[in-house]
Amino acid sequence: MARRRVVITGLGIVSPVGNTVEEAWQNILAGKSGIAAVTKFDTTTFPVQFAGEVKNFD
């Protein structure tokens, strides 16, 4: 297998555990889950009411 050079130019994240790398990493280390009851819409007609929503992001 040929060796390939890789260059990482930056980091970014938008996720249920945080919208910045630092926030997400601290929440992961603290054992926090991004899974919770859905708040963005009514889920009463769906079989699942929990999800990993991205919060505080426009």
Describe the structure.
The chain is an alpha+beta fold and 58 residues long. It has one domain. It is 16% helix and 7% strand. The protein has 1 helix and 2 strands. A two-stranded antiparallel sheet has the order 1-2. The relative contact order is 0.20.
Short description:
By secondary structure, the protein is α+β, with helices and mostly antiparallel strands.
Rg, alpha carbons? 16 Å
Large-scale geometry = elongated
Strand order of the largest sheet: 1-2
Structural class: alpha+beta
| Most strands sheet | 2 strands, antiparallel
Compressed to H and E, one letter per element, the order equals: HEE
Number of separate domains:
1
How many runs of DSSP E, i.e. beta strands?
Answer: 2
Annotation keywords:
58 residues, 7% strand, alpha+beta, 16% helix, two-stranded antiparallel sheet
Architecture blueprint of SSEs:
Elements: H1 21-29, E1 36-37, E2 50-51
Antiparallel strand pairs: 1-2
